[in-house]
Structures are given as C-alpha cells and as structure tokens.
Specification:
heterodimer, A: about 240 residues, alpha/beta, Rossmann fold, 7-stranded mixed sheet, 3-stranded mixed sheet, 12 strands, about 25% strand, disordered C terminus, B: about 325 residues, TIM Barrel, 13 helices, about 40% helix, globular, PdxT/SNO (chain A), glutamine amidotransferase (chain A), glutaminase activity (chain A), lyase (chain A)
Chain lengths: ~240, ~325
C-alpha cells in the first residue's frame, strides 16, 4: 500500500451490497503499466485511500441506506468533486442528479452526473435482456461489447448546467429495445435517434463514467480498462485541480 | 402424470456468473439459451446470464419475507435488497398446519406496487403451473420452496423452461447441483424455516462448503466417482471444483433471527441472507431488519456488529429442532 504514487493506482469498489466482487475480479485481471491496488470501501477510512471509485450494481435503495449508516454519503459527494467515479446500474442511479420511480418518500443520490434516470426503466426481471453494444473508445472498437441489462435504469434526460463538463455519449441501444408505449421524443427513421435519450446506455461527464448495464458480469475487460486508462489515469497528475 | 407443456431444453452448463475464472477469455455475446425466443431486435430475454445476474445483484443483501404491502414497505425502508411475498411466514405455517400453497396473485401484485425493489414469491416443489402464474404476473424471482407443501414427490420444476429465474433450497452439494442442472440460477440453504434456530442452516452451509473443498482436490477419476456418490451432474461438479464455490450465488436461509446469525452465515461463505419469520415475529421489526441488513455488510467487523446488535428487543421465540417439532422438518422435502 505504501508504494510511491507513480507506479500504482488505487481503485476503490463500494462494497456495501451488490456485485462488488465481480468488479474486483475484473480489475485484478487487467494488465496495465501501472499496478492497480483494489480497496473494498465500507468506511470512510477506506475511501480516503482511493484515487477512484466504482459503485457496483445492486439495489440502489439498499446501497444508499448503508452508505448513510456508514457515514459515507457526504465523503462520497466530496470525492466526486475531485476524483473519478464509475457507476454501473444501481451505481449509475446513485451517480445521477435526478431519479424517477424512486421508492416512496424518495431516495438519496450522490448527484455527481447531470442526468435524470428512471429506475427499472425496462420493467421487471422478465424484461431483463442481453444485447451486443457498439461502444466508442474501447479497445477493438469493431468487436461488440456484451451488454447485460438487469432491471436496468433508463436515462431520461441530459441536463448539464452551464458550468458542468459536457456529457459525452459512448453507447446506445437500438430504440426497438425500449419499452413500448411511452415515447419521450418521436423517433425518426434512424434507429438510434440521437434525440431520444432513453437509448443511451453509457456516457461520460468529465472524469465520471455511467453505464446502465453490467460490464462486470461479462468476460470482457474492455470497459474496466477504459475506465482506468481514460478516466482515472489522466487525473492522477492533477489531483488538486477541479473536475473537467 | 406427465409434465406435458414444458419444452425440453437440454441441460447445458450455466455460464460462470461471478466473473471469476474465465479460461477462454471469449466474450459472452451470445446467451446460452433462448437466443431466438422473443428477442426484440438484437436483445435476448430470459437468458441464464440475466437470471443468475439478478442473483449477483442481490449479493451482500437481505431478502425478507413479507405478507402484505405494509410489511414490504417496512422491509424496503430497512434496506432489504428484495422481498419474498407469501401468505403466511414459515412460523405461522408451522403453527396453523394444513397445505401451504402459492399466495393469492392479487396480494403479490399489491406488494409489487408498493415497493421498487425486486419481489419474489414461493411456489410448491414441482408445481409448474403456480410458476407459470407467477411468471405471468411479472414478479422478479420464484422460490421453489420446501416451506410450502410439495406438489410432486418425484420431480422438481424444469426451470430452464421459464424466463423468470428460480431460487431453490439445498442441504448439500449434490442437492444444490441437481437444482442448478434443472435451471436454478440461485441456491440457498434450506435450514429449518420458521424455527428461529440457525443450527440447520449452519449444518447445510458447512456440508456444501466441505464437499466443495473435498471435490476441489480430486483427480478426474475421483470426480466421476464422487459425482455418482452425491448424485450430481459431472460437468457441474467439475465446474464447482474448479471455482472452489457453487457456480451460482448461494444465500443462507432457514432459522436466521439475529444480526449475529446473519454474520455467522456470511463468515461461513454465504453470499447473502434470507430472513423469514425472524423479522416480523420479533418485537421491533424495523429496527431488527435494519440491523440484519447492516450485519450482512459488516459481517467481518465485530465492533460494528456489537453496535448494531444493541437494544433490538426480543428476537422471535426459537424452537428446538427435534422429533416433536411442530409442523415437522421441512428440510427433508425436495429430492
């Protein structure tokens, strides 16, 4: 743990509930120039060691409650301001600024990415699905990435404030996979209508990454590699500067 | 009696759901089954990947038995990662006796409407029509459970034939692997439901783990013979031996009543915990539920466990498990 900061990077995985072990296995298998040290984050002292954080899939209501009880909500909100965070599925909900279909009485969010999402946007487990995805910026971009969507959230809107970093869309699903009956914007002849935000399944805002599906459940490490190389490593030199 | 309507799907090895040990390194673009079924555009519904994937999302969490919408809300507020909808909790099934069946669909639907977390419900062992009904309602998981009165004393449900995933109970490795070969995407210990006594859950978890440890050092020849001995499919036994754990998520169930019970099961290698009667048969359900949720996260931290175990009020009244146990031993059901 006490290595000089130049030869390793410390990535935390929020380990309160959900599929955190799967992220750990994926990170362990990455072969990068820098050594990746993994910390399972359950308390603030764990978070303080980290250069970046992954919030795994699980139940967003459960994770939020456990984070509050462990005194992690405010520290994570502070963390987001200077260090990269990647949320998958439930983690993406926690990272969002607004949520629909929250539990009765509302639920707590970290509000790190300027998007609105709907929980369980595709429906119940019977509607959970797998679909190959085209993703911008991954190694071997022509090979589709296996998208596994489990009671997945849907992106409803991108609402960056003027001062926020721009949002970059990195993957969409076909509009025909969206739940029928409720169209946000009428789709045009293009299958992946750039105006319908609900087709967005992966996006970046500044150094933060948000995916509504589960790269950690696949055997494909390209998303984990992308997060470390594109989101985390570029921030290491400029620790004290603001996100961008 | 025959089982007419279920399409026969050849048993195939479920993909390893843990992201562990991916020898080939090939991406799982194609699901193992139902690739051609109901696939809207390029999406595939009900694959083993999404079935076992949901169980993976429940890991490190607590699934609570609830009998109405109000209890379901208490469970959700307390941090349950899912709820199990049923008409009577196991302790009441023991007390009142009679045939225990699938719950009224309207009651299950009220619970689905009340919460945003996944909702599970129980069907009788072998009762595939109850399972068809639950799939039609659109709940998230089915428990083919020994807690209800079995409908078939020879056959379990062919769970591959469903889009909805199943969890099943097991007392040992052979039973667990038989259930997985029938299509279960999620295993739990049977324990002894409705007793508030954790001893049977401990027995079952210890037996699964010790059999896995034994298998993990066996040669191929020994594995063939061991597969026969424990009546498990060879390919699943071999996969388990290689992974040194069950190839699907494994929860504790049956008799868990306190945060310490839950943490005990986690330290014995479970991925999460079902709590049945233990919550709503205790004096302060909301507080106990929350404490058990925290104990599953911090199961390795005795200091936190001590804090959360304080002032929970009386736990449910426990039963000793002997031949006079009211309602009998449920764990012996299933084959």
């Amino acid at each position: 743990m006490q290595q000089p900061s130049s030869d390793h990077v410390t990535i935390g995985i929020l380990a309160l509930q959900g599929a955190f072990a799967e992220h750990q296995v994926m990170l362990q298998k990455l072969s990068l120039k820098k050594r990746v040290i993994i910390v399972l984050v359950r308390q603030q002292e764990d978070l303080d060691k980290c250069d970046a954080l992954i919030i795994p899939g699980g139940e967003s209501t459960t994770i939020a409650l456990l984070a509050r009880l462990a005194g992690l909500l405010e520290p994570m909100r502070e963390f987001l301001k200077t260090k990269p965070v990647w949320g998958t599925c439930a983690g993406a909900i926690l990272l969002a600024r607004w949520v629909e279909n929250a539990k009765k009485g509302g639920q707590e969010l970290l509000e790190g990415v300027s998007v609105a999402v709907a929980r369980n946007g595709f429906g119940s487990q019977v509607e959970s699905f797998e679909a190959p995805l085209e993703v911008d910026g991954l190694r071997e971009p022509n090979r589709p990435f296996p998208g596994i969507f489990i009671r997945a959230p849907v992106v409803l809107a991108l609402r960056p404030a003027p001062a926020d970093p721009p949002i970059q869309i990195i993957s969409r699903v076909s509009a025909s996979l969206l739940p029928a009956g409720q169209t946000v914007v009428s789709p045009d002849e293009d299958d992946t209508d750039p105006r319908d935000p609900r087709t967005i399944v992966a996006l970046r805002q500044g150094m933060h990454l948000l995916t509504t599906f589960h790269p950690e459940l696949t055997k494909d490490d390209r998303f984990h590699e992308y997060f470390v190389k594109e989101c985390v490593l570029p921030t290491l030199g400029s620790r004290s500067s603001s996100p961008a | 009696m025959t089982t007419p309507t279920q399409p026969q799907t050849p048993a195939s090895t479920p993909p390893v759901p843990h992201g562990v040990g991916n020898p080939g390194g090939t991406p799982v673009v194609a699901p193992t089954r139902s690739k051609d079924k109901d696939g809207a555009a390029s999406g595939s519904l009900g694959t083993f990947g999404v079935k076992s994937g949901l169980a993976q999302m429940l890991k490190g969490g607590v699934i609570m038995d609830v009998v109405n919408a109000e209890q379901a809300r208490i469970a959700e507020e307390a941090g349950a990662c899912a709820v199990m909808a049923l008409e009577r909790v196991p302790a009441d099934i023991r007390a009142t006796g009679g045939v225990a069946r699938m719950s009224d669909p309207s009651m299950i639907k009220q619970i689905v409407d009340a919460v945003t977390i996944p909702v599970m419900a129980k069907v009788r062992i072998g009762h595939f029509v109850e399972a068809q009904i639950l799939q039609a309602i659109g709940i998230d998981y089915i428990d083919e459970s020994e807690v209800l009165t079995p409908a078939d004393e020879e056959h379990h449900i062919n769970k591959h034939a469903f889009k909805i995933p199943f969890v099943c109970g097991a007392r040992n490795l052979g039973e667990a692997l038989r259930r997985i070969s029938e299509g279960a995407a999620f295993i739990r210990t049977k324990g002894e439901a409705g007793t508030g006594n954790v001893v049977e859950a401990v027995r079952h978890q210890r037996s699964v783990m010790s059999e896995i440890r034994k298998a993990s050092v066996m040669s191929e020849e020994e594995l063939y013979s061991y597969a026969k001995e424990i009546q498990a499919p060879y390919h699943l036994l071999k996969e388990t031996a290689r992974l040194k754990r069950l190839p699907v998520v494994n929860f504790a169930a049956g008799g868990i009543a306190t945060p310490a019970d839950a943490a005990l099961m986690m330290q014995l290698g479970c991925d999460g915990v079902f709590v049945g009667s233990g919550i709503f048969h205790s004096d302060n359900p909301a507080k106990r539920a929350r404490a058990i949720v925290q104990s599953v996260t911090h199961y390795n931290n005795p200091k936190i466990l001590a804090e959360i175990s304080e002032d929970l009020g009386p736990a449910m009244v426990g039963l000793t498990i002997d031949d006079n146990l009211k309602g009998g031993r449920l764990a012996g059901r299933g084959w």
